[in-house]
Amino acid sequence: xxxxxxxxxxxxxxxxxxxxxxxxxxxxxxxxxxxxxxxxxxxxxxxxxxxxxxxxxxxxxxxxxxxxxxxxxxxxxxxxxxxxxxxxxxxxxxxxxxxxxxxxxxxxxxxxxxxxxxxxxxxxxxxxxxxxxxxxxxxxxxxxxxxxxxxxxxxxxxxxxxxxxxxxxxxxxxxxxxxxxxxxxxxxxxxxxxxxxxxxxxxxxxxxxxxxxxxxxxxxxxxxxxxxxxxxxxxxxxxxxxxxxxxxxxxxxxxxxxxxxxxxxxxxxxxxxxxxxxxxxxxxxxxxxxxxxxxxxxxxxxxxxxxxxxxxxxxxxxxxxxxxxxxxxxxxxxxxxxxxxx
Length: 342
Description:
Its cofactor is Zn(2+). By secondary structure, the protein is α/β, with parallel strands linked by helices.
């Protein structure tokens, strides 16, 4: 089969022939239809410091996908050939304290699809049945392909109650944009998003945010004044990993404000801990999705009319992967999809 492989310890991904994956008794073999390109895939392709420390070559990359089940192991009873599925990309041990307590998203032995084992940038991918999400209701294939990052957005956005709250989102990348859509859909009063990309801020306006701020030209405090907020933001969703963005968020939260932080900083940085303490601000780190509570929430949100179409801005056949990655790395658009049937 064809697959995008990190063959060598150097920049690049290579489209090559590899053997089809084999499945065990509890596994599912899936024919991949669409995949999404993630920031993690960009790190692997560029072979940056994180990738050099994390990835063992050769490796089939990719973890955001939708596909059709073609074969199931003999122990699999609730998934059938022909089912349309996406996959939870965090494979857990099932034996640690958190796994046994039903908190699988906190497993210390998590292995990432397309990071610690061969992934979904291929014509076929194998997964344990326990990591397979069957789409029981109709869903657009492009949207189904990005359930993984959509789950990050939902997990972050729904970390705290949103109804009637004023929400600040720092970072209008694809996950930040999806979080903005979720916050609006979930009943937030105002949703403000910040970035330095005019194109991404325009996407945010299409999603329906209250205010899209280019922080090169306006401050978060300016945004507060524009909306008539007297005491600051109730909820913060930090999606950028930027030290400046995090400090601005803390400075503009109301007393008792709550921050969910998904953006991963490249290095340690200082924040105003006195402000955090005296304003009694809660900061919660978020990683991945709650398995599978977040997946249920994603499906219900889409059934309820949440529209993610504006977030998907690039579509390419898998043989045109170089153009697709160039599109994704530009930092000006939303999600980029690879079609494995083209």
